[in-house]
Write a structure and sequence with these properties.
- This protein is an alpha+beta fold and 296 residues long.
- Helices cover 30% and strands 28% of the residues.
- The protein has one domain: Hypothetical Protein Pfu-838710-001 (Beta Barrel).
- It has a 9-stranded mixed β-barrel, surrounded by 5 helices.
- A hairpin with a 3-residue loop joins strand 4 and strand 5.
Length: 296
């Protein structure tokens, strides 16, 4: 059974995570010092405890996703600076399932389904935070499980375990319309994973539909940068937007890719100083308030 690290909140914030190491480049104006050039990381910026925790998570993870949210006033300039073409983006809808009080989210469990233009749909039960080496072997070996460390500037990171399942293009829409039970979105394996970690007394069909959120996802490349990039623009019903840039890499390359990514984005004039937002948490808070207002 996966367990949370002691005193380990949902998103860990320190000045010495992968995101914090990206931030260390501010002190050198985007240039690497000799230590960083040879190692890809600034070991002096990490306490022994933080370094040990992070390296342990990285060792057990399947991948690392480095994420950055762009301040809303800088969306247009970032799109132009990176040569993104919105017409190449894929449209998606995301549906979350939780109680109006976000009880699942408070317990570190996320239930989600998506409709994906041109591909159909999928679903996921996600648990975070997790310690990878404490996951059961039977679950860890499942081809449907992905263990990933997400890191953002400002020293924030979290390790999650996502159990994925396929779905049809209209499955989540039918649930939102009330013609299909929520549990039918998830496989037997996902339902068992949910039951093991959800708060006692809460079943999938007890949850409310939160959403959908419409978003555009664009996978693209820039000539001077060797890694593929992903941009997601989430459109919230109140008119607000979140633009997130991300790239994935093997855990062994996390520090090096973080350094290279910051240098590249800074060189392109992309604003990296904005307050970081998480897409899921923002969506859950919005729809939770909407449900509360409707029931008042």
């Amino acid at each position: 059974m996966p367990r949370r690290a002691a005193n380990h909140p949902d998103w860990v914030t320190t000045g010495s995570s992968v995101g914090g190491i990206i931030g260390d480049l501010r002190k050198t104006g985007g240039r690497e010092d000799s230590t960083m050039a040879s190692t890809g990381k600034r070991l002096s910026a990490l306490s022994d405890e933080d370094l040990g925790r992070l390296l342990s998570l990285l060792k057990g993870a399947d991948s690392v996703e480095l994420k950055l949210t762009i301040p809303e006033g800088h969306h247009q300039s970032a799109v132009a600076a990176l040569g993104m073409d919105p017409l190449q983006a894929q449209m998606r809808q995301v549906f979350f399932f939780d109680t109006p009080q976000l009880t699942l989210n408070g317990a570190g469990v996320v239930a989600r389904a998506r409709r994906i233009q041109g591909k159909g749909g999928d679903s996921v039960i996600k648990l975070r935070p997790v310690v990878p080496d404490q996951l059961p072997d039977s679950l860890r070996k499942s081809p449907n499980l992905v263990v990933e460390v997400d890191a953002m500037p400002g020293g924030t990171y979290v390790c999650s375990a996502s159990l994925k399942g396929p779905g049809g293009i209209d499955d989540a829409r039918q649930v939102a319309q009330g013609t299909r039970p929520i549990r039918k979105l998830f496989s037997k394996q996902q339902r068992a994973f949910f039951a093991e970690h959800a708060p006692e007394g809460i079943g999938l069909d007890d949850l409310s539909v939160l959403g959908p959120i419409t978003l555009l996802k664009l996978k693209f490349a820039v000539a001077e940068y060797t890694r593929p990039l992903v941009a997601e623009m989430w459109f919230y019903p109140d008119g607000s937007r979140i633009l997130e840039l991300s790239t994935k890499c093997p855990p062994s390359q996390a520090f090096q890719v973080a350094t290279e990514s910051r240098g590249f984005l800074t060189g392109r004039g992309v604003d990296l100083s904005g307050e970081q937002q998480t897409k899921t948490s923002t969506a859950l808070r919005y729809f939770s308030k909407q449900l509360a207002a409707a029931s008042a």
